[in-house]
Amino acid sequence: MIFRCLLVVTAASALLAPPLADACVCTINIAKAKDASTVVFIGTITKQKESKSCDAIQKPACGSVFTYTVAVEGVFKGTVGKTVTVKSGRAKGTCSTGLIGRHGKGNKWLFFSKSAAEPFELRICGGTLQITPKLNDFVTQELGAPKAP
After folding, report:
1. Which residues contact 65 (CB under 8 A, 6 or more apart)?
2. C-beta neighbour count of 33 within 10 angstroms
3. Is the model's pTM score more than 0.85?
4. More confident residue, 95 or 56
5. Comparing C-alpha atoms, which of 103, 99, 121, 101 is closest to residue 112?
6. Sign of the four-CA dihedral 67, 69, 75, 78
Protein backbone atom coordinates (compact mmCIF):
# COMPACT_ATOMS: atom_id res chain seq x y z
CA MET A 1 0.00 0.00 0.00
CA ILE A 2 2.81 2.43 0.85
CA PHE A 3 4.61 1.54 -2.37
CA ARG A 4 1.50 2.33 -4.42
CA CYS A 5 1.10 5.76 -2.76
CA LEU A 6 4.72 6.63 -3.35
CA LEU A 7 4.41 5.63 -6.98
CA VAL A 8 1.40 7.91 -7.44
CA VAL A 9 3.18 10.84 -5.79
CA THR A 10 6.24 10.27 -7.94
CA ALA A 11 4.16 10.04 -11.11
CA ALA A 12 2.23 13.19 -10.18
CA SER A 13 5.49 15.04 -9.48
CA ALA A 14 6.81 14.06 -12.89
CA LEU A 15 3.67 15.46 -14.53
CA LEU A 16 3.88 18.73 -12.61
CA ALA A 17 7.62 19.29 -12.91
CA PRO A 18 8.87 21.35 -15.86
CA PRO A 19 10.83 19.43 -18.47
CA LEU A 20 14.60 19.54 -18.06
CA ALA A 21 14.98 21.39 -21.35
CA ASP A 22 13.22 24.40 -19.82
CA ALA A 23 15.62 24.56 -16.91
CA CYS A 24 18.68 26.19 -18.42
CA VAL A 25 21.43 26.81 -15.94
CA CYS A 26 24.88 27.83 -17.10
CA THR A 27 28.09 28.24 -15.19
CA ILE A 28 30.17 30.70 -17.14
CA ASN A 29 33.94 31.03 -16.92
CA ILE A 30 34.67 34.31 -18.70
CA ALA A 31 38.28 33.41 -19.59
CA LYS A 32 37.22 30.04 -21.08
CA ALA A 33 34.31 31.66 -22.93
CA LYS A 34 36.79 34.14 -24.44
CA ASP A 35 39.09 31.32 -25.56
CA ALA A 36 36.14 29.51 -27.18
CA SER A 37 34.91 32.62 -29.02
CA THR A 38 35.98 34.36 -32.22
CA VAL A 39 34.80 37.78 -31.01
CA VAL A 40 34.22 39.21 -27.55
CA PHE A 41 32.89 42.74 -27.11
CA ILE A 42 30.86 44.96 -24.86
CA GLY A 43 28.04 47.18 -26.07
CA THR A 44 24.53 48.54 -25.64
CA ILE A 45 21.56 47.25 -27.60
CA THR A 46 20.02 50.16 -29.51
CA LYS A 47 17.43 48.30 -31.61
CA GLN A 48 15.78 44.92 -31.50
CA LYS A 49 13.60 43.00 -33.91
CA GLU A 50 11.66 39.84 -33.21
CA SER A 51 10.63 37.38 -35.91
CA LYS A 52 9.03 33.95 -35.66
CA SER A 53 10.95 30.87 -36.67
CA CYS A 54 10.61 27.08 -36.55
CA ASP A 55 13.57 24.86 -35.84
CA ALA A 56 13.80 22.20 -38.56
CA ILE A 57 15.27 19.73 -36.07
CA GLN A 58 12.92 20.35 -33.14
CA LYS A 59 9.63 20.87 -34.99
CA PRO A 60 7.09 21.85 -33.89
CA ALA A 61 9.25 23.91 -31.53
CA CYS A 62 8.57 27.31 -33.04
CA GLY A 63 9.68 30.44 -31.30
CA SER A 64 11.26 33.82 -31.78
CA VAL A 65 14.52 34.86 -33.35
CA PHE A 66 15.82 38.18 -32.08
CA THR A 67 18.09 40.44 -34.10
CA TYR A 68 19.80 43.28 -32.24
CA THR A 69 21.72 46.36 -33.31
CA VAL A 70 24.54 46.96 -30.85
CA ALA A 71 26.58 50.12 -30.29
CA VAL A 72 29.98 48.62 -29.49
CA GLU A 73 31.93 50.30 -26.67
CA GLY A 74 34.92 48.00 -26.44
CA VAL A 75 36.45 44.89 -28.00
CA PHE A 76 38.27 42.19 -26.02
CA LYS A 77 38.89 39.78 -28.91
CA GLY A 78 38.53 39.79 -32.69
CA THR A 79 37.53 42.51 -35.13
CA VAL A 80 34.25 44.28 -34.42
CA GLY A 81 32.89 47.53 -35.85
CA LYS A 82 31.32 50.43 -33.94
CA THR A 83 27.81 49.20 -34.75
CA VAL A 84 27.09 45.49 -35.28
CA THR A 85 24.21 43.08 -35.67
CA VAL A 86 23.78 40.24 -33.20
CA LYS A 87 21.35 37.34 -33.51
CA SER A 88 19.87 35.34 -30.65
CA GLY A 89 17.00 32.89 -31.07
CA ARG A 90 14.52 31.32 -28.71
CA ALA A 91 12.81 28.07 -29.59
CA LYS A 92 9.64 27.73 -27.50
CA GLY A 93 9.97 25.11 -24.79
CA THR A 94 13.65 24.43 -25.33
CA CYS A 95 16.94 25.58 -23.90
CA SER A 96 17.94 27.59 -26.93
CA THR A 97 19.59 30.95 -27.42
CA GLY A 98 16.95 33.48 -26.41
CA LEU A 99 19.06 34.68 -23.55
CA ILE A 100 18.43 38.37 -24.19
CA GLY A 101 14.85 38.13 -25.43
CA ARG A 102 12.61 41.18 -25.51
CA HIS A 103 14.37 42.93 -22.63
CA GLY A 104 17.71 43.79 -24.19
CA LYS A 105 17.17 47.25 -25.64
CA GLY A 106 18.97 49.97 -23.73
CA ASN A 107 21.00 47.51 -21.66
CA LYS A 108 24.74 46.90 -21.80
CA TRP A 109 25.89 43.36 -22.57
CA LEU A 110 29.14 41.43 -22.84
CA PHE A 111 28.87 39.40 -26.06
CA PHE A 112 30.73 36.18 -26.88
CA SER A 113 30.31 34.72 -30.36
CA LYS A 114 31.97 32.01 -32.42
CA SER A 115 30.85 33.78 -35.62
CA ALA A 116 33.59 35.55 -37.55
CA ALA A 117 31.20 37.93 -39.32
CA GLU A 118 27.85 39.63 -38.79
CA PRO A 119 25.33 38.82 -37.71
CA PHE A 120 27.24 37.55 -34.70
CA GLU A 121 25.29 34.56 -33.40
CA LEU A 122 24.94 33.89 -29.70
CA ARG A 123 24.77 30.44 -28.12
CA ILE A 124 23.27 29.38 -24.83
CA CYS A 125 25.97 29.05 -22.18
CA GLY A 126 28.38 30.77 -24.57
CA GLY A 127 29.19 33.49 -22.06
CA THR A 128 26.99 36.41 -23.16
CA LEU A 129 25.63 38.24 -20.14
CA GLN A 130 24.19 41.55 -19.06
CA ILE A 131 26.73 43.96 -17.58
CA THR A 132 26.32 45.61 -14.20
CA PRO A 133 28.85 48.09 -12.75
CA LYS A 134 30.25 45.40 -10.44
CA LEU A 135 30.45 42.86 -13.25
CA ASN A 136 32.07 45.43 -15.53
CA ASP A 137 34.99 45.72 -13.08
CA PHE A 138 35.29 41.93 -12.90
CA VAL A 139 35.28 41.59 -16.70
CA THR A 140 38.08 44.17 -17.02
CA GLN A 141 40.05 42.26 -14.37
CA GLU A 142 39.57 38.96 -16.20
CA LEU A 143 39.92 40.11 -19.82
CA GLY A 144 41.99 43.28 -19.53
CA ALA A 145 41.09 46.70 -20.90
CA PRO A 146 39.02 46.61 -24.10
CA LYS A 147 40.24 48.11 -27.40
CA ALA A 148 38.22 50.69 -29.28
CA PRO A 149 35.98 49.19 -31.99
Report:
1. 50, 51, 52, 53, 87, 88, 89, 90
2. 20
3. no
4. 56
5. 121
6. positive
CA separation for the pair 147, 149 (Å, rounded) = 6
Rounded Cα distance between 113 and 52, Å, is 22
Which residues make Cβ contacts (< 8 Å) with residue 71, sequence separation at least 6?
43, 44, 46, 82, 83
- The closest alpha carbon to 108, from 43, 46, 49, belongs to 43
DSSP, collapsed to helix, strand or coil, labels residue 93 as coil
DSSP 99: S
List, for residues 81-130, the tens digit of each pLDDT value: 999 999 886 644 445 455 676 667 888 999 999 999 999 998 877 888 88
**DSSP summary character for residue 147:** B
pLDDT of residue 135: 87
Q: Which of 92, 142, 137, 133 is nearest to 112 (CA)?
A: 142
